[in-house]
Amino acid sequence: MKMNIRQECFIICLFPLMLLLFSCSRKNPPRDEIPVIKDLLGRFERAVKEKNAPGIDSLMSAGSLELGYSSRRILSEIYPDSVKSTFYTFGKRSFAYTKDIASVDCFIMADSTDSGRPVEITLVKSHDMWLIKRFDLK
Counting runs of H as helices and runs of E as strands, what totals does the chain give? Predict the structure, then answer.
């Protein structure tokens, strides 16, 4: 069966329109998740500064423990030499998120002039609550 030129043009024009409609139908994650994610990162940063292992554990998902992540592991990576190491902040943060997963790229900084050590923190949303799933030094 051979198509005429009108049919071919119609199909060629219809394809991009269908792609556009499909991409618009997927809903972007709500922007009200941004302050919730920032709040989690703030609580995590405070717990790290205080070396509060139970506080860190309370922010972690059950899946993180299955993957071998724990407050002890995170603290030992942030403070590799417990006598000399200092922690100032998770600086230069940038994050992206979907409906139920977020990725935070930042740097572990010892002071405001430190260039820092890069780290990626993966968050998951479980039962309407964001939790830490992974903490990976790069």
Answer: 5, 4
Alpha-carbon distance of 121 to 135, in angstroms, equals 5
Low-confidence ranges of the chain (pLDDT < 50): 17, 19-26
Q: Do the Cβ atoms of 75 and 54 come closer than 8 Å?
A: no
Q: In the prediction, which pLDDT does 2 show?
A: 63
**Alpha-carbon Rg of the chain, whole angstroms?**
22
CA distance between the termini of the chain: 57
Placement of tokens 């993180």 in the chain:
64
Residues, the chain:
138
pTM: 0.77
> What is each CA distance from 112 to 43, 45, 107, in whole angstroms?
19, 15, 11
Q: Are 78 and 86 in contact (CB under 8 A)?
A: no
Superfamily (CATH H level) for 30-137: NTF2-like; domain 1 (3.10.450.100)
Angle at 77 between CA 73 and CA 81, to 5 degrees: 115
Those residues with Cβ within 8 angstroms of residue 112's Cβ, 6 or more apart along the chain or in another chain: 88
What pLDDT is stored for residue 20 in this prediction?
45
